[in-house]
């Protein structure tokens, strides 16, 4: 796995192009701006040197310095900075070739980025990232094999233009920018790149507000169909979805996630978008679905595949039944639009954004851990308000 670098940028200290190897995330943030009094382990600092000759050929080198935890951070910085001119001289003379940095290709950089993110993103998100990259970025051999310092904004912009010309929405084009920016940013932070080529990609303006146009009567009809759907476990799945849960969150639920003693359930961090466990109140409707399915215990999926109880139900199976709901309703609606419907209805009824966030499982910097119990109560109360408006 690639090292994680944090730039050292302490005022009034010579720390140009010095980076701390931060694989265990001792330091948070993009830069170290204050010298720590003590580091509880041995540590490494990396000095990067760049030289551009008269022919404008750019050459880089780096050297890693190991320090004992007995060494203070400022002492280590002074020792590293004292080697800057020596390293530059060796680079100019060509006697430091063994330390020249090998610039990764775009494909190599992407694979390293995905490897770094594999424990931070859900499996579904990883698959989406890889599918998107393979289709729009890595499918061009010349670009995939190009060193990242040769990848220009102009080239990336041509891909964006191709996406738009193919009839895809600006939102899809924006996904390319949002996917590549953090990948290139790593190499800007460690000094490999001077700037991020994805920063200047131009995306046409578009309305990214989420709204679902459904009359009050149609909304009530939709919920009546869902709550009276004739087949299990799909009726139960629909009821969970109407409580603001994403489809993957619902299908990933296991009996061990249910706490009937406290009337709560937990969406594990690996199954949601916020990357931390989220706990919600069990409504009487949700408890009813569990009773219908037959309450169990252990790490078994609540909504398992018909052919293999060790696997969760496939999304496609649920969507087949969702299509039947839409046919009866006579409208076009995605499963995920249920969340937008809940959010829009609650905001229109005067609920605050924090209250809506508590229902949908979004996070806000204003919501701290000490309010977690309040959050559950607020979410439950907000849902009660929503159901009073849409249930017949």
3D structure, described in words:
This protein has 392 residues and is an alpha+beta fold. It has three domains: 5-99, no CATH class; 106-189, Orthogonal Bundle (DNA polymerase, domain 1), CATH 1.10.150.130; 216-390, Intergrase catalytic core (hpI Integrase, Chain A, Orthogonal Bundle). Helix content is 44%, strand content 10%. Strand 6 (258-259) and strand 7 (264-267) form a beta hairpin. The protein is elongated. 23% of the residues are buried.
**Number of DSSP strand runs:** 8
Order of the strands making up the biggest sheet: 3-1-2-4-5
Average pLDDT, rounded to a whole number, is: 79
- What is the makeup of the main sheet? 5 strands, mixed
Continuous helix count: 15
Q: How far apart are the termini? A: 55 Å
Radius of gyration: 26 Å
The CATH class name of the largest domain reads: Mainly Alpha
CATH topology of the largest domain: hpI Integrase, Chain A
The name of the CATH architecture of the largest domain is Orthogonal Bundle
Total count of domains: 3
Family: Belongs to the 'phage' integrase family.
Keywords: DNA integration, DNA recombination, DNA-binding
Organism: Sulfurospirillum diekertiae
GO molecular function, one term: DNA binding
List the main descriptive attributes of the protein structure presented here.
single chain; 392 residues; DNA polymerase, domain 1; hpI Integrase, Chain A; three-stranded antiparallel sheet; 15 helices
